[in-house]
């Protein structure tokens, strides 16, 4: 699996690994890259079966496999210690890595993540699956912004929505891979294991997230032994895209605090 590694801004700059959600594309983090690259060596990548890492995914594909694939790619690049920033499915991969590789994960940021799939989120994905089966990639892509962005934000950006739709269709990961990644997401359940995570964690959520209710982050925060939670009043599921100024400030401050806390633990 190919990863993209930015030059370190200074000697011994901490490594921050960015993991996108179900879409899987590293380009999801474009609103954060310029800011993060001033302080960190940043790893971005397209997840297996998506974007620049296209291949047919195996049956019974799992979040554990996603985490291991990323770890192996980082190890091949000579990266043995890193902080993970994950959005939604990416946050689940981060939780898995923190459990499986505690010696490597120095800190974790979960953005609109969860312990196990909330009933509302499951319903949303069931509806989206039906759209995919009935209308193919076009229907999936057309519906996607409704779950990602606030209504007023979308309404004010109609040309952008059209451009994003065309781009998403051109880079669609394919129905078989999407369904396998979606099943992996549905089956992930960290409710019994998350208390074993020892690294510091920052939980970020948005109160108007239509896809993953903020209560999911509240439950995750309560279950993690070394975590803090911050709440964005608006921004939707893709709050790092819709309000990057607010989000980037929270992320920068949060990363600095997490890494300082990790140093105290050491």
Model description:
The protein has helices spanning 30-36, 63-76, 89-100, 119-148, 151-155, 158-170, 175-187, 214-223, 239-242, 244-265, and strands at 4-5, 15-19, 41-44, 82-87, 105-111, 201-206, 227-232. It is an alpha/beta fold and 266 residues long. It has a 7-stranded mixed beta sheet with strand order 1-3-2-4-5-6-7, sandwiched between helices. The chain starts with a strand and ends with a helix. The model has no long low-confidence stretch (mean pLDDT 96).
Main features:
Pyrimidine_utilisation_RutD; Putative carbamate hydrolase RutD; AB_hydrolase_sf; 10 helices; hydrolase; 7-stranded mixed sheet
Briefly summarize what is shown:
Helix 4 (119-148) packs across helix 6. 49% of the residues lie in helices and 14% in strands.
User: What percentage of amino acids are in beta strands?
Assistant: 5-15%
Share of residues in helices: 40-55%
Average pLDDT, all residues: 96
Number of helix segments? 10
* Ends distance: 31 Å
* Series of H and E elements: EEHEHEHEHHHHEHEHH
**Radius of gyration from CA coordinates:** 17 Å
Model regions low in confidence, pLDDT < 50 over at least 5 residues? none
Mass-distribution shape: globular
Number of strands: 7
User: Which structural class do you get from the secondary structure elements?
Assistant: alpha/beta
Described by strand count, sense and barrel closure, the largest sheet is: 7 strands, mixed
Q: If strands are numbered along the chain, what order do they take across the biggest sheet? A: 1-3-2-4-5-6-7
